[in-house]
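Sample intake sheet
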Amino acid sequence: MKQISHRRWIQFLSTILSNSYMGSIYTKTVSNNTLKGICVPFLNCYSCPTALFACPIGTLQHFMTIHMIPYYLLGFLSVVGMTIGRMACGWVCPFGYFQDMMFKLSEKHYSVPYYLKYTKYFVLLLFVFILPYITGEMWFSKLCPAGTLTAGIPWSIWNPVNPSNGHHLLSNPPGIMFYSSLLVLFACCAWFIVSKRPFCRVICPMGAFFAMFNNFSLIRLEIDKTCDNCSVCQQNCPVDLNVAVDVGSGECIRCLDCTRCEHVHLVSEFKSFQGISRENTEQSVKLGKE
């Protein structure tokens, strides 16, 4: 239980720290401070009144709309993926934390069809890369439930007067796109209550990007040979994986809840190298004696 408690605290602190800008209370506008040039490795809407950093998916879309390749951002995200895989999804993503909390509200739970895991790659390709490039519009951001929750709703309720020009921030009332995004958010929230992290598993383009690195990241999970298929790992898994079967799956968010089972271990490539080196040394010694 200590490990789970630690993860919850880290999720909570990440949510607070990444959204700790209070200047919008005085400026009545979205922050454009220097830190907004830095992306965090999870969904964190740029337009949220308290957002301190930028969202990588929003930034990717922006570069697609201006027909440029964000080499720095893609390199940063690739380094994160190659190092820890989807661990950011399990430990620091505020929207993942929101889903975990929503799931606790109901005792009636439904599984998510496994084949739907491919949908998020379609979302990444179409709504983050192709449509923004063709239309010049950031389509995923328009409908993103995380953005609607943390930016769309707060701004539409508050709609402050900008002190620099005396005008309301939102000059026009919410339109059909806002109400469409609200519908998406409400549908997602209903799904969050009855299923384990469905957004992460089916929709999230950030999860899709990191999932491509999961199978060969430096930090991975490993099942020992004494596994007896007790299903403890699946019972504890927040994305409902049978870890004994899907240990290298791109769906694993590296939350480590499954390591409560004695047969599941966190390993790193560095330890693997040490183990290989040790085995080679022992073999060399044996051959020398012979």
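Comment: The longest helix spans residues 269-289. Strands lie at 219-223, 264-268.
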